[in-house]
Each structure stands twice: as C-alpha cells, then as structure tokens.
Amino acid sequence: MAVNPIQVQKFLGGIDYPATKDEVVRTAESHGADEDVLNTLRNLSRDNFNSPNDISEAIGEQK
C-alpha cells in the first residue's frame, strides 16, 4: 500500500539532514510509524537524503 509523503513527514520530526535511509527509518520508528510507513521507507531507492523533499520525491518514485 502506498503511503502519502505528508503522512510520512509527521514521523520524521526532529531528524537532522543530511540523513541516511537507516536514520530515517529509525526516526520514523521511534515516532510510532506503522509498518506501511516503515516498509515504504525501507524500500526507498535512495540511501541518503538532504531534505524532507528528497524523501517525498523518493516516495513518489515508488508509485
């Protein structure tokens, strides 16, 4: 199931960029993200993100 990038961002509050995929997943997990969100983040094609927009773009590329 595809998740909304805006939904994902609410689980990433306080993350420092640039961030690795592992850091993004850990941050989302610590903020209570559900398995759909965590799986989406784990499956992103990029390994490094410079901004929230990079994450949103990567999520959009999955669709």
Question: What does the model show?
Answer:
- By secondary structure, the chain is mainly alpha-helical.
- The chain contains four helices and two strands.
- Helix 2 packs antiparallel against helix 3.
- The radius of gyration is 10 Å and the shape is globular.
- The termini are close together.
- The relative contact order is 0.25.
- The mean pLDDT is 94.
Keywords:
4 helices; 63 residues; single chain; mainly alpha; two-stranded antiparallel ribbon
Major sheet size, sense and barrel closure: 2 strands, antiparallel
The sequence of SSEs as H and E is HEHHEH
**Overall strand count:** 2
Q: Which strand order spans the largest sheet, edge to edge or round the barrel?
A: 1-2
Strand and helix map with partners:
Elements: H1 5-9, E1 19-20, H2 21-30, H3 35-42, E2 48-49, H4 52-62
The gist of it:
The protein is 54% helix and 6% strand.
